[in-house]
Design goal:
globular, TIM Barrel, 6-stranded parallel sheet, 15% strand, 8 strands, single chain, alpha/beta, 247 residues
């Protein structure tokens, strides 16, 4: 980071970009890695986010029901997050405690952006509907579980064809799209395949490409410029497909 004060760094980024973004996604691991100092910085980060901007806590939780209930309480009642990322590997009972918070949301890992995603997520799974990749099976289950309308999916921009298939199955659910920027995901494909038929539902995430846009004292200004550029590029791609915001 350009400055050593963790909390001051994130607060400066938020103050510089708060009117440009649709959400913030703090990654819990980087705060936890700094011990109590990092957790205090997370608290300060959460307080710095404007009240009208939702926070997706990127914690990728996934454990048995009683533990999941504790994780859900921590995310939503202690940290005040509006949504959280979850790993579905252990099944529905690990997801349900989070869904019981009807005014909160979850994003279920489906087809992620990392190089090793294919190790499991693309394995062929045979069920009553035939053989299909595991990520499609997860998508189908998420659609079934979405009775409260508070489930979204995580699909990496580095896997555009898989995203297209996920959108075909989950026609209206929001998709959190990491992988734009440093990981090399294609924005045009992310918008084309990630949006729903109304031109909405694609939450495009860029982390390092924005917060580390500059290593100098102008880091906040550079972050704003990077966020503004990405937002403009997103809207250019939406307009190509016939969608644009009312003027």
């Amino acid at each position: 980071m350009p400055i050593s004060d963790f909390a001051a760094f994130t607060k400066s980024i938020i103050e510089a970009t708060g009117d440009l973004v649709c959400a913030y996604k703090p990654n819990y691991a980087f705060y936890e890695a700094e011990g109590l100092l990092g957790l205090r910085a997370l608290e300060a980060t959460m307080k710095a986010v404007p009240s009208d901007v939702p926070v997706i806590l990127d914690a990728k939780r996934g454990d048995i029901g009683s533990t999941a209930a504790a994780y859900a309480k921590a995310a939503f009642e202690v940290w005040g997050a509006d949504s959280i990322t979850l790993n579905p590997y252990m099944g529905r009972d690990t997801i349900e405690p989070f869904l019981e918070y009807k005014d909160k949301g979850v994003f279920i890992l489906t087809r992620t952006s990392n190089p090793g995603a294919s190790d499991f997520e693309e394995l062929q799974v045979t069920d009553a509907e035939g053989s299909r990749p595991l990520y499609e099976h997860v998508t189908g289950r998420a659609v079934e579980w979405n009775t409260r309308g508070n489930i979204g999916l995580v699909v990496g921009a580095t896997a555009p064809e898989e995203m297209r298939r996920v959108r075909e199955i989950a026609t209206d659910m929001p998709i959190l799209i990491p992988g734009i920027g440093t990981q090399g995901g294609d924005l045009e494909s992310a918008i084309r395949f990630g949006m729903n038929t109304k031109g909405l539902g694609a939450v495009v995430n860029s982390s390092r490409g924005i917060i580390f846009a500059s290593k100098g004292p102008d880091f906040a200004e550079a972050a704003r410029a990077a966020a503004d550029t990405l937002r403009t590029d997103i809207n250019v791609e939406r307009k190509k497909l016939g969608f644009q915001w009312p003027s």
